[in-house]
Amino acid sequence: MKRVVVDLHFIPCLEFFTAVVDADEILVSPDELYQRQSYLNRTRIRLANKVESLSIPIQGRRPRLPLNKVLIDYSQNWQKIHVRGIQSAYGKAPFFEFFFPYIEPVFEKKHASLWDLNYEMLTICLKLLRYSGKLTVCQKIDEEQVDLDLRGQIKPSGSFLERELYLPVPYAQLFGSDFEPNLSVLDLLFCMGTEAKKLLLSSVKN
């Protein structure tokens, strides 16, 4: 039985999912501390002319708090900006109409904490990928019972090429002739649909 512990990212990238797609159990903890300049509150999508980061504003500056204590800032209109960005990026993608109705309602809620938002989004993404394992919330994680501990490893700084998790397998994206690897899993879902999980499995770096 393969058990993997990860940070709870916001709409995780493909590197994240190649690390967990073949796991029997994914472990996440609300007590893990918020990390600045991480994927905890950002994701990357591909627009017509560039790759864009969608970020969730949080209350306070540089909080050294557990993720379930990090509050989202709703004084900014970030939800509509995210929805418009996703629609602009993927509205014409082959599987947009199938999967977007699962994603859009999450942006219509006002989750109190970053943990609540990220957990719901990950649950939906795993469902759309037809993940067959279990997602488990643990207050404290026993490292001796974990096969792979990826906390603090998958991050925007540094290249995924330096890590031993993800080997990009190109697929047909909506814009441009050059393949852009390691975007949000939304890029893969909207472009590849039911083939997404198969492609992730073939992207696992051995």
Q: Care to describe what's here?
A:
The chain is of the alpha/beta class and 206 residues long. The chain has one domain (3-202). 30% of the residues lie in helices and 11% in strands. The chain is built from 6 helices and 6 strands; from the N terminus they run E-H-E-E-E-H-H-H-E-E-H-H. The strands form 2 sheets. It has a 4-stranded parallel sheet with strand order 5-2-1-6, with no helix packed on it. It has a two-stranded antiparallel sheet with strand order 3-4. Helix 3 runs antiparallel to helix 4. The longest helix has 15 residues, at 114-128. It comes from Algoriphagus halophilus. InterPro entries: WbqC (IPR014985). This is WbqC-like protein family protein.
Order of helices and strands: EHEEEHHHEEHH
Count, helices: 6
Q: In which range does the helix fraction lie?
A: 25-40%
Radius of gyration from the alpha-carbon trace, in angstroms: 16 Å
Taking pLDDT < 50 over at least 5 consecutive residues as the criterion, the unreliable ranges are: none
Number of DSSP strand runs = 6
Largest sheet data? 4 strands, parallel
Major sheet: arrangement of strands: 5-2-1-6
How many domains make up the coordinates?
A: 1
Measure the end-to-end span: 18 Å
- Secondary-structure content class: alpha/beta
Overall, the morphology is: globular
Overall pLDDT level:
94
Strand content: 5-15%
InterPro entries: WbqC (IPR014985)
Organism: Algoriphagus halophilus
Protein name: WbqC-like protein family protein
Pfam families: WbqC (PF08889)
